[in-house]
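QA checklist item 7 of 12: single-chain prediction sanity check.
[x] sequence parsed
[x] length recorded as 229
[x] structure emitted
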Amino acid sequence: MANEVLPGWLREAGADAIVMAACILLILAYYAFHRKRVQRDPTYSIHYVNDMTRRIWVESVMSGTGKDIMAVQTLRNFIMYPILMVSTCALLIVGTLTLSGQAGNIANSWHAINLGGSHSAGVWIVKIMFLLVDFLVAFFAYVSAIRLANHVLFMINIPREAQSGHDVLSPSHVADRLILAGKMVALGMRTLIFAIPLAFWLFGPLYLLIGTVGVVGFLSRLDRHQRGL
């Protein structure tokens, strides 16, 4: 019985599955190339430069005096962005859930320009689930960034004399938390960027491939530290 069902499923969703696999391989190839390039020259990556900048900033603030207000204002500005994006992700999640309930009504109209992909309502729901998971990852990444930055907000103003004997309150440890918060913000932004090809996938696998190629090309410049600019 299973052998009779499998060929039909492959005929229905085969093109979408093949294109999705090709897009995943393309993304993995990009990150493998980026990783090797960073191993040769860490400053090639904007993420490395950002992490280094945050570490130097924290050590400068915690080793001196008179920078408390500046530090609080900087962290407050840092936190404002993930707060805004958490609200945005929540709206996107609600909108995606609403869209999932309209599969039978709008799938056919959205598939009007679908070239070679499946028109099945079941495959449509799978596409919506991928998009929903993407937004959920972004939501929790931004929430984690807010949590970590709030920790840093208190830790960075601890007097120098109170830091002695407490390794968890050292500038290095505080910088690690701020760097992790920055990584969570970057992860949230990255997942929202990858929502672009996933949204195009709703119109057909060809558009998923085009969107992925465009996003990888964009990331190749976004992840690179542009010297002299």
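[x] summary fact logged: Confidence is low (pLDDT under 50) at residues 1-7.
[ ] second reviewer sign-off
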